[in-house]
Amino acid sequence: MYWEVLDIIDVRSFFILFIGAAYLFVWIQVILFHWRGAFRSKVMWGPVMFTPVLAAIGILYAFFQGGFMDLLLVAIFGLGALEGLAGTYYHFRGVRSYIGGWTLRNFMVGPPVILALIYMVLSLAVLLVYFLGPAGGG
């Protein structure tokens, strides 16, 4: 069954638009947490600089599709998934570096492992909807 949101935008485009907008809020959280961490590692700048690109491509794709935009969406959100995976690794490593290692307290006060996972899952969700969504995929 194919339906449109308010007869303006198809479901797949709306979902990608929604995720793009969600990345704006994720970006704010990423900035705050990495600022809290004093950007002590250069890799902390990656998601701070890359997240607005994810947001922009997600928002733009909702209105401009086909050709180069399809390729750009897949490439950027593929990189977003890898960025989230790398962030998950670095956050787990950061929690482990606290005194006591992997304890509940260190997960509560250390780098937010779940945020890095969410970052990855949002990108994977866009790719999933792009390839398997109601519009038939890319």
Radius of gyration, rounded?
17 Å
Q: What fraction, in percent, of the residue positions are helical?
A: over 70%
Span between N and C termini? 18 Å
Tell me the series of helices and strands, N- to C-terminal: EEHHHHH
Low-confidence runs of at least 5 consecutive residues: none
How many strands? 2
Structural class: mainly alpha
Average pLDDT level: 90
Biggest beta sheet attributes: 2 strands, antiparallel
Net shape: elongated
Number of individual domains: 1
Residues in β-strands, percent: under 5%
Number of continuous helical runs:
5
Widest beta sheet: strand line-up: 1-2
Summarize the structure.
The chain has 5 helices and 2 strands. By secondary structure, the protein is mainly alpha-helical.
Structure description:
The chain has a two-stranded antiparallel ribbon with strand order 1-2. The chain is built from 5 helices and 2 strands; from the N terminus they run E-E-H-H-H-H-H. It is mostly helical and 138 residues long. The protein has one domain. The radius of gyration is 17 Å and the shape is elongated. The model has no long low-confidence stretch (mean pLDDT 90).
